[in-house]
């Protein structure tokens, strides 16, 4: 007979005593259980004690989280959070440097626990830490030379404890003084400082900016690009990551009016506050430093750095949103002059005719003819072509950039098309507008960065005007594809679809430079795209005949079983998941894997991202597969229903899934990417005996079925397979041909 569901068997430790095996009744109050444990060891004042996990997390057991205790868990009897908080509050104010250092070290460790954090904060512990940072550092300044290691460790533990306490979201970021901000900023501005202090200081500045508009303004006044650049030029990738995260945070929170400083601004970018340089990401020096010291450094880029570079890329392109959503004013002479400039460059117009009525008519006629050659839809007033948003004025900006910076290619395209028949000309104006719109969709201009995406493109960091250069390459590709397709005006949408496919296929190879992107496109001519499409289409058509469909139906269960085994094997290997936090981006990991017998899920927190598999015995928590009630995804997940920034993020929503077990318990996941999401949801559904419904399963099934059928049909090459099976022959009139071998 199985034990009652409310009874949990655990081991409880106490320093200096043998561990005690005990059955905990989850229906009893936690205080009664602690009293029972204390009585067993003859300890008085049970209210001064508490239970905590004996693993590396050391988290306290409370009424809220007690349901997470599983059979076989090792607990520890320890001082209660309130008592611990009082003791540490006193110890960190000790006059002894050694005692203070040890207390701060303990505080940094314990502050990760929300129960302890609440008690320490109730004692005004945050204010004490900020005072120590503001005045305590100066107080020990004289000791710094003779006790530098001790001083550095003390400050590091203080900042670590502060970051961990604030991470719980109990205290508002708006409560901090200018003096504290200046002190934290001074640690960042110092040329030589302990790495751990620099890391914590950058993390604090990032959180301040992201969580408080007032603090954003104060931080922006203290930190300049010139002070951050040395950290990017170092060799520590973690420091570089935190530095870019601060730049991203300042950029993300910059007011709209601060984001439109001209790229050609003559202001010295090293001394400008970031609030006044919101498009600083487009500036050459910062871009080239990131390219040289981060992207092209002789080391692999880790996931967090890749994410920050992706955010940087998104914020850079989002600077284009204002122009993308700005309609052209047909009455604005400055805007009309851009169109005149496009015409002048293309046709090298002579000086303006005299203002007689005859010459005016002649000039209008000439302009109309030239605007038609330029490929505008509205030949009389081409300004009307730019009233649709998106792409708005961004399309006109791109056309002007192409005309000025790639003048020969621009003139060649315009004149080449103006000499063709009307129906065969590739309209440069219309093409540029639609292409700009398409590129904005591909790069998701105007959308906020995802919390989980790492998809940055190195080539966009190789040029000061990367989007414009991207457009210039693609408009020439469009013209080339138009000629290869021998397209007419009726084929315009077909050409755009082919160009989009060419661009998307080239981008998936992650070219390291714009030149490499251009060469990738050269290999993706219209003929090559046709071959790819034909191959894909033939693969589909070949398998639509009745005999092939019957064969597919026969071998499909075998392939599905193969996919199921692959999914379960991947779950046995396990995956490292990141704990996402809407207040600050700092890597906190946990790992989950399936036992080899497919009966138990092992999981637990990790201090850092693992290299390879994590052994089962290092994962303290267990969840029997038999206890799993259901697997839910997306908006049905409990952690996606909670209020917070993650709820609003579509991409995070698409990567979320939860395991529901017991009555009200759940294990919440956010997959690192779509592939891992499909692997885990498929594997969990397979464990529960349900169908695997992910896109990955469908793709794998199609691929493996195709390969298996091709292998089985190898001997039938060049033999026509009939749609219907051959008829069964009639029975012979006699069986004289049958001989009895006996």
From TrEMBL:
Residues 334-507 form the ELMO domain. Its main location: cytoplasm. GO terms for biological process: actin filament organization; apoptotic process; cell motility; phagocytosis. It is found in: Cytoplasm; Membrane. Keywords: Apoptosis, Cytoplasm, Membrane, Phagocytosis, Phosphoprotein, SH3-binding. GO terms for molecular function: SH3 domain binding. The keyword Membrane applies. Signal peptide: none annotated. The keyword Phosphoprotein applies. Transmembrane segments: none annotated. GO terms for cellular component: cytoplasm; guanyl-nucleotide exchange factor complex; plasma membrane. PANTHER family: ENGULFMENT AND CELL MOTILITY, ENGULFMENT AND CELL MOTILITY PROTEIN 1. Involved in cytoskeletal rearrangements required for phagocytosis of apoptotic cells and cell motility. Acts in association with DOCK1 and CRK. Was initially proposed to be required in complex with DOCK1 to activate Rac Rho small GTPases. May enhance the guanine nucleotide exchange factor (GEF) activity of DOCK1. This is Engulfment and cell motility protein 1 isoform X1. It comes from Balaenoptera acutorostrata. The gene is ELMO1.
């Amino acid at each position: 007979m199985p034990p009652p569901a409310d009874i949990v068997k655990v081991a409880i430790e106490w320093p200096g005593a043998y561990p005690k095996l005990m059955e905990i009744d989850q229906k009893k109050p936690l205080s009664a259980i602690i009293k029972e444990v204390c009585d067993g060891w003859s300890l008085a004042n049970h209210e001064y004690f508490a239970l905590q996990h004996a693993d590396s997390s050391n988290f306290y057991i409370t009424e809220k989280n007690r349901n997470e205790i599983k059979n076989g868990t090792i607990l520890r009897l320890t001082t209660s959070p309130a008592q611990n908080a009082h003791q540490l509050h006193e110890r960190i104010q000790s006059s002894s440097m050694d005692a203070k250092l040890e207390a701060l070290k303990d505080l940094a460790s314990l502050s990760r626990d929300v129960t302890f954090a609440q008690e320490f904060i109730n004692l005004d512990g945050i204010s004490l830490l900020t005072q120590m940072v503001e005045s305590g550092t100066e107080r020990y300044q004289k000791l710094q030379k003779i006790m530098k290691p001790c001083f550095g460790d003390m400050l590091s533990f203080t900042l670590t404890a502060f970051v961990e306490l604030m991470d719980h979201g109990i205290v508002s970021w708006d409560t901090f003084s200018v003096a504290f901000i200046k002190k934290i900023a001074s640690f960042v501005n110092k040329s030589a400082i302990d790495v751990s202090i620099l890391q914590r200081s950058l993390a604090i500045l990032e959180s301040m900016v992201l969580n408080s508009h007032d603090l954003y303004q104060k931080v922006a006044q203290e930190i300049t690009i010139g002070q951050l650049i040395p950290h990017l030029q170092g060799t520590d990738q973690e420091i570089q990551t935190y530095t870019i995260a601060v730049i991203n945070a300042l950029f993300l929170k910059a007011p709209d009016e601060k984001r439109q400083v001209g790229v050609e601004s003559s202001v010295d970018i090293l001394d400008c506050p970031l609030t006044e340089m919101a498009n600083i990401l487009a500036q050459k020096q910062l871009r080239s430093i990131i390219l040289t010291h981060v992207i092209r450094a002789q080391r692999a880029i880790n996931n967090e750095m890749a994410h920050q570079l992706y955010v940087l890329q998104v914020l850079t392109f989002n600077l284009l949103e204002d122009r993308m959503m700005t309609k052209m004013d047909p009455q604005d002479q400055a805007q009309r002059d851009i169109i005149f400039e496009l015409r002048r460059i293309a046709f090298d117009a002579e000086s303006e005719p005299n203002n007689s009525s005859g010459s005016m008519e002649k000039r209008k006629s000439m302009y109309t003819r030239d605007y038609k050659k330029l490929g505008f839809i509205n030949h009389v007033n081409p300004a009307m072509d730019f009233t649709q948003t998106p792409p708005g004025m961004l399309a006109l900006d791109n056309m002007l950039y192409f005309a000025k910076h790639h003048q020969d290619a621009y003139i060649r395209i315009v004149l080449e098309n103006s000499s063709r028949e009307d129906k065969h000309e590739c309209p440069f104006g219309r093409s540029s507008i639609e292409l700009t719109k398409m590129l904005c969709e591909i790069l998701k201009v105007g959308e906020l960065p995802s919390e989980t995406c790492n998809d940055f493109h190195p080539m966009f960091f190789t040029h000061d005007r990367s989007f414009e250069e991207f457009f210039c390459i693609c408009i020439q590709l469009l013209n080339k594809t138009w000629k290869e397709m021998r397209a007419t005006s009726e084929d315009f949408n077909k050409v755009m679809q082919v160009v989009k496919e060419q661009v998307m296929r080239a981008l998936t190879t992650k070219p390291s430079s714009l030149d490499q992107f251009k060469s990738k496109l050269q290999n993706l001519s219209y003929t090559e795209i046709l071959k790819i499409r034909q191959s894909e289409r033939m693969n589909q058509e070949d398998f639509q005949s009745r005999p092939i469909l019957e064969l597919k139906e026969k071998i499909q269960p075998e392939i599905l079983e193969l996919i199921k085994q692959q999914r379960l094997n991947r779950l046995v290997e396990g995956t490292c998941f990141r704990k996402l936090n809407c207040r600050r981006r700092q890597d906190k990991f946990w790992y989950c894997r399936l036992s080899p017998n497919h009966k138990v899920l092992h999981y637990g927190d990790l201090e850092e991202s693992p290299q390879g598999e994590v052994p089962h015995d290092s994962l303290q928590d267990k969840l029997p597969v038999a206890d799993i009630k259901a697997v839910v995804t997306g908006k049905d997940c409990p952690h996606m229903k909670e209020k917070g920034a993650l709820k609003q993020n579509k991409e995070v929503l698409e990567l979320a899934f939860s395991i529901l077990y017991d009555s009200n318990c759940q294990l919440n996941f956010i997959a690192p990417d779509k592939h891992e999401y499909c692997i885990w949801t498929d594997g969990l559904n397979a464990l529960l005996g349900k169908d695997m419904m992910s896109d990955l399963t469908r793709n794998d099934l199609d691929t493996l079925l195709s390969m298996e059928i091709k292998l089985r049909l190898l001997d039938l090459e060049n033999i026509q397979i009939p749609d219907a099976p051959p008829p069964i022959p009639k029975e012979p009139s006699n069986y004289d041909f049958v001989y009895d071998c006996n």
